[in-house]
Amino acid sequence: MTNQKSKIKNQDSSINRVGIIGAGTMGSGIAQVAATAGCQVKLFDLNEEQLKNAEFALEKILSRLVQKSRIDETEKSRIQSNIQYVNTLEDLSDSDLTIEAIVENLEVKKKVFGELETLVSADCIIASNTSSLSITSIAASLENPERCLGIHFFNPAPLMKLVEIIPAVQTDESITDMCVSTIKNWGKTTAVAKDTPGFIVNRVARPFYSEALRMYEEGMAEVPMLDKIVRQMGFRMGPFELMDFIGHDVNYVVTESVFAAFYFDPRYKPSLTQKRLVEAGWLGRKSGRGFYKFEDGNKIEPDHDPEMLTGADIKAIQDRLLVMLINEAADALYLKIAIAKDLDNAMTKGVNYPKGLLAWADEKGLPWCVQQLDALYDFYREDRYRCSPLLRSKASKKEKFFPV
Asked: Does 272 map to a domain?
């Protein structure tokens, strides 16, 4: 292992050789993105069968793009020739950038990073695609932690535009700048986030699930109606169908980890309803049952008549969900998790929200947001509904998040 301080790359240096650790869906998707951008990619996995599956899946994806006239055969061959499938970590030794996309286990990641650092050059950037683990803790496993940061893609990586860039406490600023530039050159929108639980998207999106679950538990409406009401707001999927799509084992664990990481702040409290689904093995689409039943991966629509709700009932549900999301985004800005533009870009391009939440707050009016939150707090007397100080401050000053 080298004992010299990491030689930080000059910002003008280019990243051409990329190593990806993990040939699952995410790792393979990142490899496709980098290869399409012209990088020489080595996709590593110890499991040779997984590597074969990744190569086969890429062939299928690219052939479909050819059929749709999105690319031609020459482009398909170029992308495929840019990816080499390898099963020893030593094969990544000449990488300019490595991105780890393996199991969400801190100790496993630390072990892999520690071994990787002994193999790559002193100026190789070492990144993690983790969606929720501490980048600072991962970086601490390295002798030269200033070369480490988070580069968080969203699934499916080739289609989703957003990539969160998360510098650790130790990360050299030039490394962050270089990775932002590189990922933009790969055709993605970047959002730089502070290394806090959930980063931007997995933090700000928590109320989309938790408040919907809370309203269901309170009997405000049944699952299909709640999903329908939320879709009417412009969201592509309702919260319950989205949780079924993601998988309750994944969604619940993220909520639980964010809750614990924020020292059990009631704003992030998990739902017993979702926990029971996990305990039952009703994980959603992947298991054939969650909030909905599935057949061959397709949701089976309920056969009973929809509930009849008044316009006031529907508005109350929509307003409550929206203001809780706005409050979370405002608090993320207040705590300097990210700048306003990156926060809104993260939600529109990372999880396809119809509008950026801070822009939506400006549209609704910040005094309206404060009034809604205070009414919820006065009724429930729970810290879960406390208004963000920034939201209250801006409302009192008649300011907006995005002044014209």
From this structure: no
Strand partners, 62: none
- Which bin fits 71, alpha (ψ -120 to 50), beta or left (φ > 0)? beta
Q: For 153-192, write each residue's pLDDT tens digit.
A: 998 999 999 999 999 999 999 999 999 999 999 999 999 9
Answer yes or no: 202 catalytic: yes
| Catalytic residue (choose from 95, 141, 202, 345) | 202
Q: Indicate if the pLDDT at residue 386 is higher than 50.
A: yes
Q: Which of 128, 131, 144, 345 is catalytic?
A: 131
Band of pLDDT at residue 347, cut at 50, 70 and 90: very high
Query: Structural domain tally of the chain?
Result: 1
- Give yes or no for a contact between 96 and 120, defined as CB atoms under 8 angstroms apart: no
List the beta bridge partners of residue 42.
19, 84
- CA contacts within 13 A on the Cβ side of 137: 14
| Model pLDDT for residues 360-382, shown as the tens digit of each residue | 999 999 999 999 999 999 999 99
CATH number at residue 175: 3.40.50.720
Note down the domain range covering 94. 17-192
- pLDDT above 70 covers a percentage of the chain that reads 96
Active-site residue among 164, 211, 241, 328? 164
131 is catalytic: yes
Query: Are 135 and 170 spatial neighbours (Cβ–Cβ below 8 Å)?
Result: no
Residue 304 catalytic? Answer: no
Residue 397 lies in a domain: no
Does some domain include residue 246?
A: no
152: annotated active-site residue: yes
What is this structure's pTM? 0.90
| Any domain includes 339 | no
Catalytic residue among 95, 128, 152, 211: 152
